[in-house]
Design goal:
The chain is mainly alpha-helical and 178 residues long. 74% of the residues lie in helices and 0% in strands. It is built from nine helices and no strands. It has helices at residues 3-19, 26-33, 37-44, 47-69, 78-90, 95-109, 113-131, 141-160, 166-174. Helix 5 runs parallel beside helix 8 (141-160). It is elongated, with a radius of gyration of 17 Å. The chain starts with a helix and ends with a helix. 24% of the residues are buried. The mean pLDDT is 90.
Length: 178
């Protein structure tokens, strides 16, 4: 990817993190990137191509941040992994990413093929990320990672609607003291 495209994606990502994704249209994204909406289409092919590239860029940024907080190494237990990821994603540094994730899920649920495809790629990336941090000797690492990601996503959804206490319920029910 060219430096120019990366710079535009960085600027648009900052805009989306501050203002959300659901109301993102070409003009505000172009303004954030310091270009015109026509130039965005030139660089990304279509609006859907732009949105997909932007979503992947945001996912990569979030993964980079999570990697800084939780380097690639097995955690001592599933519970420790779950609690560490929940704590990290509740950090203010990730608040914008969580809002954008909920925007992506909402658009996918409303039938956007672009958002659904991007969500699938993001989920697959985070499953791989979790697999690398599962305790050593995990019998079914991908299955376990998918289950943990589903629980993390559920907790973050509950956080978004004001029920943060749900994390404690999930932790106790699915990760008894290990």
């Amino acid at each position: 990817m060219s430096d120019k495209k990366t710079q535009m994606l960085d600027a648009m990502a900052a805009h989306v993190l501050a203002h959300g994704l659901n109301n993102a249209s070409l003009r505000p994204l172009a303004k954030a990137a310091g270009t015109s909406d026509r130039m965005l289409i030139y660089h990304f092919g279509t609006k859907n191509g732009l949105i997909e590239a932007l979503l992947m860029h945001l996912a990569a940024q979030m993964t980079f941040g999570l990697n800084a907080l939780l380097p690639e190494a097995p955690m001592p237990s599933r519970r420790a992994l779950f609690e560490t990821v929940i704590a990290a994603t509740r950090n203010e540094m990730f608040a914008g990413y969580m809002r954008v994730w909920h925007d992506i899920v909402a658009a996918a649920a409303q039938g956007s093929a672009t958002h659904k495809a991007a969500a699938g790629q993001i989920i697959d990336g985070f499953v791989d990320w979790i697999v690398k941090r599962l305790p050593e000797g995990e019998a079914a690492p991908e299955r376990t990672a998918r289950a943990i990601l589903t629980m993390i996503d559920g907790v973050l959804l509950m956080d978004a609607v004001g029920h943060a206490e749900m994390a404690e319920a999930v932790t106790e029910a699915f990760f008894p003291l290990e």
